[in-house]
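User: Could you write out the 3D structure of this protein bound to inosinic acid? I've included everything you need below.
Assistant: Certainly. Input first, then the structure.
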Amino acid sequence: MPFMSELVIDGHRIGVLFSEAEIAARVKVIAAEIAARKPSNLLVVPVLKGSFIFAADLIRAMHHAGLSPEVDFMILSSYRTSTKSSGQVNVLRDIETDVKGRDVLLIDDILESGRTLAFAKDLLAARGAKCTYTAVLLHKPGHLAADISADFQGFECPDKFVVGYGMDMAHQFRELPFVGYVVPKQ
Ligand code: IMP
Ligand code: MG
């Protein structure tokens, strides 16, 4: 396939930001970084929906890095009007696992205001998690509204609305194997 830096899907122009190969290489490095912390009795909690592909790849890379975590899922929604976050976080689906005394790794797609991850981290701390690590694919700097930073991070993300590799714009574009940005229509 020829190299394409931009493609048109459903009438939207999508620019490629991070390619499949770049993402795969970062995921491997992050898995090694997590393994180096030697987490004990680790529970991995992908924060759905946007993190599902990153989490699927990272969890398998963690296996290759020698880890054997349990996995449970949480669905959080931070209410958004199209592409802006409102600040309120709701639990749409909670984990079924007891986190008391355990190391937990939260996985999310993007750290932007930080409200989503801060909310999830506080929730797990209140339930007695021993240590809660956070891994995000992307960090969009300049929007932090909560006191949080990711322990493990894929890439710094430019201030654009991104899609693909699990992330959506109104539930579209999750299937793209790369991270792209939507070129705003004139
Ligand atoms: P925050 O850190 O609580 O502001 O929320 C980050 C969440 O907002 C992420 O988990 C994404 O679900 C969503 N989000 C933020 N920026 C984007 C974007 O550019 N594309 C798609 N989703 C985004
Ligand atoms: Mg999300």
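The chain has three helices and eleven strands.
User: Perfect, thank you.
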